[in-house]
Amino acid sequence: MTGIDEVKGEILRRLGELYGENLVSVVFYGRHLRDPGFPEIDVMVIIERAYDPVKMNRVADFVENVRDPIEDEYGYHVSFELYTKEEAENFHSGYLDVVVNYEIAYDRDGYFEWLMEEMMNPEKVMRHVQYLSTIEYFVVDDKENER
Questions:
Q1: Is the pLDDT of residue 59 over 70?
Q2: Structural domain spans, the chain
């Protein structure tokens, strides 16, 4: 099996070819950073803008041009998050995995570093937690349930 650093370099090369100037950030994260023998590579990709309004089409492009060729050629599974900058600036629970252990492979204008600072800002984190904790939260009146 090819070394993981070579495979990550190939992922970065393919992302550059696929997205060109639209590519903003490429961040590797997850277990493979602690265990280079782990056969899965987690990658977060942030692009400037949606070149296709249908996110599933963008995901399909990534799968066809990056994930599947890497998996077929190198044998590593590629797990990915793909966001536009607008999408990335909303809180995603997946960031909790990323912030623990990540490696920036490409970061135009320091965007990802800025994003992580924003996501770790205590005031903003509390707003995200409050928002997440109020979704679908209903108080049930026990007396009504007794009938």
A1: yes
A2: 4-121
Among 1.20.140.10, 3.30.450.20, 3.60.21.10, 3.30.460.10, what is the CATH number of 4-121?
A: 3.30.460.10
**pTM beyond 0.85, yes or no:** no
Nearest to 69 by CA among 9, 11, 5: 11
H/E/C letters for each residue in 19-53? HHHHEEEEEEECHHHCCCCCCEEEEEEEECCCCCC
DSSP character at residue 110: G
What are the pLDDT digits (tens) for 73-130? Answer: 999 999 999 999 999 988 777 787 888 889 999 999 999 999 988 887 777 766 666 5
Residue recorded with tokens 């799968």:
63
The half-sphere exposure of 129 on its side-chain side, counting CA atoms within 13 A, is 9
